[in-house]
């Protein structure tokens, strides 16, 4: 494992334990070059379906893209990184259980919006505003009105 500080190619594991959800292993490593310590997370590489983009392109499912988008929506909100990770874990499980070999970004986005709506309404609106690409303030206000009705 390459050191993130000095780029030395070798490090040794000094501690290893399961993460909170048990779906990954957290490893503390020490660089053999500069002796600094860093953490890595190891998870099983699963065969997930391809993601069909709105423009017709297909690409592999990228967990980090989803985590990044949700983090932005949840910025300065009372939602921990652990909650975000659990949300993405649930999404991955749902996708893996599906017999489909391809999944649309629309299906992923709708599922995430439903989940975020139950977690935090501000995060939901932020995510929806990017996901739905509101053309003007009227569409944004309409979404807010729907949220207020519920």
From TrEMBL:
Q: How is the cofactor bound?
A: Binds 1 zinc ion.
Q: Which residue numbers delimit the unnamed Zn fingers?
A: 3-34
The ATP-cone domain extends over: 49-139
Q: Which cofactor does it need?
A: Zn(2+)
The family line of this record is: Belongs to the NrdR family.
One BP annotation, GO: negative regulation of DNA-templated transcription
UniProt keywords, alphabetically: ATP-binding, DNA-binding, Metal-binding, Nucleotide-binding, Repressor, Transcription, Transcription regulation, Zinc, Zinc-finger
What single Pfam family name could you report for this chain, choosing any that match?
A: Zn_ribbon_NrdR
Q: Mark out the compositionally biased spans (Basic and acidic residues).
A: 9-20
- Per its record, how is this protein called by name? Transcriptional repressor NrdR
Q: Which organism is it from?
A: Oryzomonas japonica
Q: Which GO terms describe its molecular function?
A: ATP binding; DNA binding; zinc ion binding
């Amino acid at each position: 494992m390459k050191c993130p500080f000095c780029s030395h190619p070798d490090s040794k594991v000094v501690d290893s334990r399961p993460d909170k959800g048990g779906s990954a292993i957290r490893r503390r490593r020490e660089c053999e070059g500069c002796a600094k310590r860093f953490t890595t997370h190891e998870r099983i590489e699963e065969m997930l379906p391809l993601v069909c983009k709105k423009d017709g392109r297909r690409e592999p499912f990228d967990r980090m893209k989803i985590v990044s988008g949700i983090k932005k929506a949840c910025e300065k909100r009372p939602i921990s990184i652990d909650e975000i990770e659990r949300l993405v874990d649930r999404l991955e499980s749902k996708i893996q259980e599906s017999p489909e070999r391809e999944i649309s970004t629309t299906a992923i986005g709708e599922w995430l919006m439903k989940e975020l709506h139950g977690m935090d309404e501000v995060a939901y609106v932020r995510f929806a505003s990017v996901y739905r690409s509101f053309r003007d303030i009227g569409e944004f206000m309409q979404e807010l009105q729907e949220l207020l009705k519920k």
